[in-house]
Amino acid sequence: GTLQQTNQSLCEYHDPILKDEILVVLLQQPSGVTFGKFSGVFHKTHGYQLKLSRHGYTSLQSLLEDMKDLVEVVGKETQDPLIRCKFPSCHQLVEIFPSGPKSGIS
Q1: For the whole model, what pTM was predicted?
Q2: How distant is the alpha carbon of residue 4 from its chain centre?
Q3: Cβ atoms of residues 83 and 38 within 8 Å
Q4: 79: helix, coil or strand?
Q5: Which residues does 46 contact at the CB level (< 8 Å), separation at least 6?
Q6: What is the rounded average pLDDT of the residues 52-61?
Q7: Are residues 83 and 26 in contact, defined by beta-carbon separation less than 8 angstroms?
Q8: What are the residues facing 74 on neighbouring strands?
Q9: pLDDT averaged over every residue in the chain
Q10: How far apart are CA 88 and CA 79, in angstroms?
Q11: Contact indicator for 12, 5 with CB cutoff of 8 Å
Q12: 83-96, pLDDT tens digit by residue?
């Protein structure tokens, strides 16, 4: 189990960009995204897999808990809760990616 421990310390980095990317996904889906579909929608939006452990989160739930001032989870008691942006007016964030992340700004 020594490998596990080195892994653990790498995971303590919480990436603020990750949160912006989550919001970009949610803002493109105004009616919300279910837990079950979220990673697929994320992949489609940003072109890569959502790797929560890389950012220090054990689950989507723990990430959203960290973002609860921006994001709401609807129907927590159901099989597949819905994730929505609390203030769609916070969509000025989307200006970070005017035409999606592949607009080749750099």
Answers
A1: 0.68
A2: 24
A3: yes
A4: coil
A5: 21, 24, 25, 101
A6: 89
A7: yes
A8: 82
A9: 78
A10: 25
A11: no
A12: 999 876 655 554 54
